[in-house]
Design goal:
- With 191 residues, this protein is α+β, with helices and mostly antiparallel strands.
- The protein has a 6-stranded mixed sheet. The protein has a two-stranded antiparallel ribbon with strand order 1-2.
- The radius of gyration is 25 Å and the shape is elongated.
């Protein structure tokens, strides 16, 4: 008898209200909605990290720059549909911009034609994003078509410019001076 009473009490307790978050298709109401939404918003804001760029732009993604690798595939997905002489950069909160970019047609003149002319928009985006988010002295590396790139932002210069070096395939690095030319856009000058 005691066993059946114990089982009945256990079943009654187990059948009580379940405390869990509501499913996405059935939002909470009243008291629970107020507390659930607050907790959900707090968790969401922890995940929504933004990266402050050197040019003052906030980016939603760092594309691996903080870990020393540039993720060309992710950057390519962002800039893949953009055409024209100036590739659009992307900025958090704006639909038409998402990644820092080196713009302008002087890459060959500054880096040497063998290096500058072989670089595509993803390579320029890796350099631009490294200029925006990279720490001084910390190299950002990526690989494309048998070429190993190593771009290292260095110290700051006048007018918001930054010194940097680019080494391709382990050769002697090229020193560059990169200057902001717009929100998230950079161009190289002779240093």
């Amino acid at each position: 008898m005691k066993a059946s009473v114990t089982l009945a009490l256990a079943a009654l307790v187990a059948a009580g209200p379940a405390l869990a978050n509501p499913p996405g298709h059935a939002p909470a109401h009243g008291y629970y909605k107020k507390h659930y939404d607050h907790d959900h918003d707090r968790k969401h804001h922890k995940k929504a990290r933004h990266y402050q760029g050197k040019s003052g732009v906030a980016y939603a993604h760092d594309y691996g720059i903080s870990s020393g690798r540039c993720n060309r595939d992710e950057i390519g997905a962002v800039i893949g549909g953009v055409t024209g002489a100036v590739i659009g950069s992307q900025v958090a909160g704006r639909d038409d911009r998402v990644v820092g970019m080196v713009v302008g047609g002087v890459l060959g003149a500054v880096l040497g034609h063998a290096v500058g002319d072989s670089m595509d928009e993803r390579d320029r985006a890796c350099m631009g994003h490294a200029l925006e988010l990279g720490r001084p002295g910390v190299p950002v590396a990526w690989h494309r078509d048998g070429h190993d790139y190593r771009f290292t932002p260095r110290g700051d210069a006048r007018d918001g410019c930054r010194y940097a070096t680019l080494a391709v395939n382990g050769r002697a690095p090229h020193d560059v001076l990169a200057c902001p030319s717009g929100r998230g856009e950079w161009h190289f000058r002779r240093s």
